[in-house]
Amino acid sequence: MMRLIAVDWSGDCTDRGQRDRIRIADWQDGRVSVEGGRTREQACRWLIAAARQTPQLAVGLDFAFSFPAWFLRAQGCATVRQFWQLAEREGERWLASCVPPFWGRGKGSRCPSDHRQPHWRGFRATDRAIRIAGIQPKSPFQIGGAGAVGTGSLRGLPHLLQLQQAGFSVWPFDPPRLPVVFELYPRLFTGPLRKSSAAARVAHLQSAPFAALPPAVLASARHSEDAFDALCSVMGMAAAADRLSALPPVTGPDALLEGAIWQP
Questions:
Q1: CA 52: distance to chain centroid?
Q2: Is residue 253 part of a domain?
Q3: What is the mean pLDDT of the chain?
Q4: This protein's superkingdom (predicted)?
Q5: Higher confidence at residue 211 or residue 162?
Q6: Shared domain check, 226 and 168
Q7: Contact (CB, 8 A) for 192 and 204
Q8: By the 8 A CB rule, do 231 and 32 touch?
Q9: In this structure, how many other beta carbons lie within 10 angstroms of the beta carbon of residue 107?
């Protein structure tokens, strides 16, 4: 039996903020738990320990595993691993300076006026391919403002190196095998509801398959948007577990630089 884990990530710069926001939903043989209280580093070490206990493990993380292919090439990166290494060295500088193509942090750093136009290069192909009631993944270049994914991504990429070095296959860049880690987009599992609304979360959690979950798990998801995202994601993973045991290969030079969001 596979073990499935979904992590609602955080790009917060403080240990306290990370412990408050990172939530881990753990599904194993129908039993589900949702936990918080870990920093990014602690969560990464916990995942490595979980893979040693249960090698038949699939982990979803909700940050962008890469950036648009043209940006990697502009940085001189021929592989995504080289880009992860570069992000480990330069990520904090990119965040502090917020020089274009990054945006959203600091006075006057606004969303590009043409960012929704087909020619704008701030999205990966996998970001453009997903749309749920008009909602699509944010650009990884957005590092400030509502829904910004870039900060968590830049601070997450170095942890992909750790997981890979510990024996995880990072899909779709490595040949798919277990244990595997892949990129999640929680909207695929929550739908278009307004997640910041406690009432909307409560209503969603009254539907199957959530109704049979332990009261403590449901209470966590009712009271925390982060826990809600993690729980909905792991339940979506459980519903498609057969596909997680045999993830498809991804080909093409751009796709192997940009990666792909897993879709059930």
A1: 22
A2: no
A3: 94
A4: Bacteria
A5: 162
A6: yes
A7: no
A8: yes
A9: 5
